[in-house]
Amino acid sequence: MTTVHHATIERNLALELARVTEVAAMAAGRFMGRGDKNAADAAAVEAMRVTLASVDMDGLVVIGEGVKDEAPMLYNGERIGNGNPPEVDVAVDPIDGTRLLSLGLPGAVSVVALCERGTMHCPWEVVYMNKIAVGPEAAGAIDIRASVADNLKNIARAKKKDVRDLLVVVLDRPRHADLVREIREAGARIKSITDGDVAGAISTAMEGTGADALIGIGGAPEAVLAAAALKCMGGEMQCLLWPRDDAEREACRAAGLALDRVWSTNDLVGGENVFFAITGITDGELLQGVHYFGGGATTQSIVMRSFSGTIRWVEARHNFRQLQKLVRGIGITV
């Protein structure tokens, strides 16, 4: 791949992804606190699908809303974009934190990741993966096969901290009872989150959040999305397959996937051109949510690309009258 090709991808796609997540966030934000997860998800998916269709790319959805028979739009294997080069893999999560949005809770976001064709991989044989994620200071200091205590010691050493200074992000789930005990015994602090471990992983590499690591079991597709962001930010993620039952263990065996294989950041998202965009839907620690005013709304997003290492914060003010010219007639209500 030539330098010219790299520059073309950056120029055509980097900020286009922010436009995609912005529109999805504004469509979804109308359902904040209304208790209807399905309606919120449908609005975000439709908004994202329409906006992606105008992006100058030949995209293949690697992580979407499921298989075609279960998801009429943005399903795994769907072709998106206008069909022009470059050829890319795309991962979408129109709402990461659908429950948060439906209950009016903080931290719901809209996410898109993109990389060169054939470089994005998700182990669909399992629903969950065991994860450890850190920012750039601690990249190279983690080993998911090691004990929690050893990992925390190594992270603390890399960040020139005491273990007692560390803040570990953990999904609040019964399956993490032993993990929580081990973190406490090691002396580190814990930040429990109810949903949204993509944002949780990103927070480990973002200054000002206070988070030093994310550890625990979460969704496999979310691991790929988080890996894309961390690759852009210089962080690191390691994962192990976490089959829930004998059926998933057998599926892994049939696919030749070893349960002790460590999935690195590059295993999940390879290549040199990785793009990531995330827009807040409800206010959270990482991003402000959508704020509506008469005739429009404001959004806050983060856009990243690995080739340059650039991280952009995008604060936008949207005029719905003008925006409707782009989304008119396809059922999106922003």
Your description of this structure?
It is a single chain. This protein is α+β, with helices and mostly antiparallel strands and 334 residues long. It is built from ten helices and 13 strands. Helix 5 links the parallel strand 6 and strand 7.
What is the fold's blueprint, element by element?
Blueprint (H helix, E strand, L loop, with lengths): L2 H27 L7 H17 L4 E6 L15 E2 L6 E10 L1 H6 L5 E8 L11 E7 L13 H11 L8 E5 L5 H10 L2 E5 L3 H7 L9 E7 H14 L2 E6 L4 H9 L10 H4 L5 E7 L10 E3 L2 E10 L4 E10 H8 L7
Parallel strand pairs: 1-3, 6-7, 6-8
Antiparallel strand pairs: 1-2, 3-4, 4-10, 5-8, 5-9, 10-12, 11-12, 12-13
Helix pairs in contact: 1-2, 4-5, 6-7
Overall average residue pLDDT: 91
Biggest beta sheet summary: 8 strands, mixed
**What count of helical segments does DSSP give?**
10
| H/E element order | HHEEEHEEHEHEHEHEHHEEEEH
**What's the end-to-end separation, in Å?**
39 Å
The structure class reads alpha+beta
Q: What's the gyration radius in Å?
A: 19 Å
Give the CA-based shape: globular
Parts with pLDDT < 50 across at least 5 consecutive residues: 1-8
Please estimate the helix content: 25-40%
Number-wise, the strands total 13
Report strand %: 25-35%
Q: Brief overview, please?
A:
This protein has 334 residues and is an alpha+beta fold.
